[in-house]
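input
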Amino acid sequence: MSLLQREREAILNNAYVDHFDFAEVESFIKSASKDLFISHRFKKQDKILVQPRGGFPTYDKVFKLYDEFKNAGVDILPLTIDSNTRLNDYASAQKMLRLSEENDVDMLNGYPLINHGYRTTRKMMVHFNTPVSLRHGTPDARLLVEIALASGIFEIEGGPITYLLPYSKNFPLDKAFIYWKYVEKVCAKYSELNEPINRESFGPLSATLQPPAIVIVIQIIEMLLSLEEGVKSFSVSFSQSGSFLQDIVTANVIKKLSRKYADQLGYSDAMINLVYHQWMGAFPRNKEHSESLITTSTVIAGLVGADKIITKTRDEAFGIPTKESNASAVSKVQYTLGILRALPQITDEEEEENLSREVDEILEAVFNDSADTLWRKVFNAIKKGHIEIPFSPHIINNNKVITVRDKKGNIRIYDKGDLPLSEKSFRFEREKLSVGDDKNALVDQIIKDIGIML
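output
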C-alpha cells in the first residue's frame, strides 16, 4: 500500500463518513458522464461559461436552486460549503443541518457536504449532469475534497495561499501547503481515470485593493504547485479591479505568464484556463447601480477573453441572495454575453511590460530561495514579505504593502514593503500616483478607493 493510500484511509476513517468505498468511487469516476467535467466543457466550449455562487444547508433547497439555475441557462453549477465544515467542525455542522431540516430555516450558510455524504449528494450531481464547482475556503480540505470527488464534483477551488491568507488568522501556513499537496495528489490520481479534475485558484484574495502583480504571482505559484503533483487542468483567476484597462492588462499578462512558467517547468501538456470574478468588493445598495456593475463586468469578461465568469446579483448588498435573484443574474449575464460579438483586442504595452516585469521579479526571488522544494521556497517568500496580500488577517502576512488608486482608477503600489521589485518597476507605480506623504490624506484616499462602487 502506498504512503498516499495509507494517508487517505486515515483521513477517511472519520466518524462523520459512512464507510468510504475506494473501489466503488474509482469505478464511478471512471464511468462518469463527461458532462460532469468542466475540463471537458473547456475543451469544447464556444462561449464564456457562466457560473453563479450559491449554496443552502439542505439537500432539497440545493436541488431547487439547481433547478432554478438550469432554467436560467447556467453552464456551471456551484456548491458553496458552510462555515462549520470549512473549519472541520463536522459536529456543529451536523447539529445545524438537523435544525435546518426540522424547522425549514437555514441554520448554515452553505451545504455541509461531509454530513450529507457522497452517496446522497451524488444522486443530485448525476441528476443534473452538469459540471459542479466546489467553493469552500478551507485550509485543510482533505476530507472535504475526497467526499466532493466521490460525489461527482470535478472542479475544486482554492489553494494553500488563496484559501488561507485571506480567510484565516492563525492556521499554520506550512500545514496548509502539506494538506493541499494531498488534495493535488488525489485530484491527479482521479484525473487518470476519465477527463481531468480541474483545479481553480481563488484570484480575488482579500478582494480589497489587490495589486495585479501579487494576484498573478500567487495564481502562478498555486498553478505550479498543482501541476507538479500531476494535475492536468488548472484555472487561474482574478476579479474585477475597478479599472477597465487594468483588468485587460492583468488578463493579458496572466495568460501569457502562466503559460510561460508552466512550459518552462515542463508542464506544456497542462490545460490552463482563465476565470473572471465579477466585482468582489462592497456592492451598491441601489439595485439599478448593481445591475449596471454586473453588466459592465460581463462586458469586461468578454474583452479579456475569459473562459468562465463567476456572477454576482443585484441583491449582493443585502445578504445572501435568493435562488430567484441568483438565477436572474445568470440569465442576464448569458444575455449580455450573447450580444457581444467581435470584441476588439485592447492593450497598453507600457502597462503590460511593467506588470510582466514585476511578476518576473517577484517569482525570481521565490525561485532563488535556497529551500529544496517549491512549497518551502514560497513559504519562505511569504515569511520574508516577498509575497504578501494587502488586508490579509493572517499573522504571517507582512502587512507592509500599501496600495491606492491613481486618477484613472488603477490600483498602484504606494509602499512596496519588502516586495522584491526593482527601482524601475516601483518608480513606474509611484509616478502614476498623486498622493503625497500626508498620511491622513492617504488613509482618506484608501477608504474612498475601497468603496469605489458604492
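quick obs: The longest strand covers residues 233-239.
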